[in-house]
Structures are given as structure tokens and as C-alpha cells.
Design goal:
Length: 322
């Protein structure tokens, strides 16, 4: 594709140079203006989209702009022709030239409308989730000692209601068997919420890592979950990175193997990772010394939280007890 684009651009550039050398200026100004207009409108339209692949459209934009420019050039040269058929062709070329930016403008406003619709749906969904969260919190005290059964009933009653399942899955009373079932849900958001729940079993987490069609979606949750088996955490740490920022999730997970914690301490240059490390309950005195050195490599070597936390942990873990 890049080679074809370059060849096309060179062809058009060569054509422009040829016309300039022949002093055939007619239509070149109109063509240049149309090219710039399409390019500008196209960039605007592309960046109205929130799709992660929207920027790919920039690769095709020169083709659209050059097509419109050629049509504009033909209009400029044919509109004064003697033959009526050629004059008609000139106006057809003009319509085709103008259709390109018009289509891009339409797509841009279509993206704006789609974004507004999705934003409204998102706000409505958040409001529903908050209402349901409050209802769930109100229902649990009515059956003390039977919270798990209450949530199981609510899950059955609202099995098709995403906005009800998501707040339920935040509860520590959800049974591990229920989480195992919902971790296989087709809705990735529901599956992820099930995986994040502290009651999610190691077997469930292992199955997600080994067999899910899109395991990368769960990597952050797996890296931070205390029930993730050490061998899975080790594999996840060593595999080629596809998700950025996993060190932050590994850092404060008490299940993270010591060698991984040591590797993170030795390599990190982020003060936030240092802060997360200092929340890990498995740290010992030797690691605190290394973390203190690591903090000095970060963008905030005097981070007040980290400095204070290191002092607190030093007093707790490094002072010899009588």
C-alpha cells in the first residue's frame, strides 16, 4: 500500500510538472484549491471518529484529494469547450470533485452524531449502574448471613441486564462458582468484572489465560489478582508486551513472585510503579533499600508519598526488634 501510494503521488506530481512546463495553467489553481480543501476536510472528518483505527484513513486521503483535484482540473479545461458534450462532461467532473469533500463532511458530522449518541448511552448506563448498586447494597442487609444466596437470586433474575450484573460483580459475596460461569460470558465487560472479583478462583483465572480467544483483554486483571497462580504471573511477565503498564499491576500483587518484583525494582523509572511496590505487603528490608535507589531514577525522585512510605516501612521492617 505505501509503495502504491508513493507511485500514485509521483505520477500526479509528474503530471503537474509536465503541465507547468507546457505552461498549461488553466485549471491548476482550481485543482490545487480542491486538493487542499479535500485534505483539510478529510483530516477533520477522520479525527471526529473515536475508533482506534480511524487514523488509517489518512493513508487513503491523498487518493481522495487527488481524484477531486483531477476532476476540478478537467472542469477548468472542459467548461469552455465548443462541443456541448464536453461542456456537460465538465460539469459532471465538477459534481464529482465537489462530491468528495461533501461526502467527507457528511461522514464527519455522522461521527459527531454517533459520538453524542454513545456519550448519552454511556451516561444513561452509568446512572442505571449507580441505581442498581444502591439497590443491591440495600438488599444485602435484609438477609444477614445469606448474602451469597441473595446475590445468586438477583443474578438469576437479572441475567440479561448488564447494568445490574456489573455492580453485583463488585461484591465480595459473589460465589466462586458464579464467577466461574460469568468469566465465560460473551460480554467482555461482564467477564472482566468476574475475573477482577477477589473470590475468582485460580482455576478460573488459569482457564481465562490459557483458553480465552482474547486473553490480552484480561492481562491487567490477571497481573493484579492475588489468586493468579505464580506460574501464570511469570509467563505473563516474560511474554512479549502487548499491554502497556503491566508493571503497575504486578507491583502491588502479593502473589507476584519475588524475582519479578526484583526485576521491576531494578528496571522501573516510574514513580507510580514505586508507589505501587510500596503497597506490596511481601516487601522485606533488602527490597526497601533497592526501592529507595529505584525512586531516585524516576521522574519524581523526591516523591513525598514514596519517601514517607519508605521511612514507615523501614521503621517496621528494618529496625532490629529486641
Amino acid at each position: 500500500m505505501p509503495g502504491l501510494l508513493i507511485a500514485f503521488l509521483l505520477f500526479i506530481l509528474g503530471g503537474g510538472v509536465f503541465l507547468a512546463l507546457k505552461k498549461r495553467w488553466r485549471g491548476l489553481g482550481l485543482a490545487t484549491g480542491m486538493f487542499l480543501a479535500v485534505a483539510g476536510v478529510g483530516v477533520w472528518a477522520i479525527f471526529q471518529s473515536r475508533s482506534s483505527t480511524a487514523a488509517i484513513g489518512i493513508l487513503f486521503l491523498p487518493f481522495y484529494a487527488l481524484f477531486a483535484a483531477v476532476m476540478a482540473w478537467l472542469f477548468g479545461n472542459l467548461r469552455g469547450a465548443q462541443r456541448p458534450l464536453l461542456r456537460l462532461l465538465a460539469w459532471i467532473c465538477l459534481v464529482l470533485a465537489l462530491a468528495v469533500p461533501a461526502l467527507l463532511v457528511f461522514q464527519g458530522f455522522q461521527s459527531i452524531a454517533l459520538n453524542a449518541s454513545r456519550d448519552e448511552q454511556h451516561r444513561a448506563s452509568l446512572a442505571a449502574i449507580d441505581r442498581n448498586r444502591q439497590a443491591i447494597r440495600a438488599a444485602l442487609p435484609q438477609a444477614p448471613g445469606h448474602e451469597t444466596e441473595t446475590l445468586a437470586r438477583l443474578i438469576r433474575e437479572h441475567a440479561d441486564d448488564r447494568n445490574y450484573l456489573l455492580p453485583i460483580l463488585e461484591s465480595p459475596f459473589v460465589a466462586a462458582d458464579t464467577l466461574d460461569q460469568l468469566a465465560a460470558h460473551d460480554d467482555l465487560g461482564i467477564a472482566l468484572s468476574a475475573v477482577r472479583n477477589p473470590n475468582c478462583r485460580a482455576e478460573t483465572l488459569t482457564r481465562i489465560y490459557r483458553t480465552h480467544s482474547y486473553p490480552d483483554y484480561f492481562f491487567q486483571a490477571l497481573a493484579s489478582h492475588p489468586n493468579t497462580p505464580p506460574e501464570i504471573l511469570t509467563e505473563l511477565f516474560r511474554r512479549p508486551p502487548t499491554i502497556m503498564g503491566l508493571d503497575r499491576s504486578f507491583a502491588d500483587n502479593p502473589a507476584t513472585p519475588r524475582e519479578i518484583i526484583q526485576a521491576i525494582i531494578a528496571s522501573t523509572k516510574e514513580s507510580f510503579v514505586v508507589q505501587r511496590l510500596l503497597h506490596n505487603p511481601t516487601l522485606d528490608c533488602a527490597q526497601l533499600r533497592d526501592i529507595e535507589i529505584a525512586l531516585k531514577r524516576t521522574e519524581r525522585p523526591a516523591d513525598s508519598f514514596s519517601v514517607r512510605r519508605i521511612q514507615e516501612l523501614n521503621a517496621e521492617k528494618c529496625v532490629a526488634k529486641p
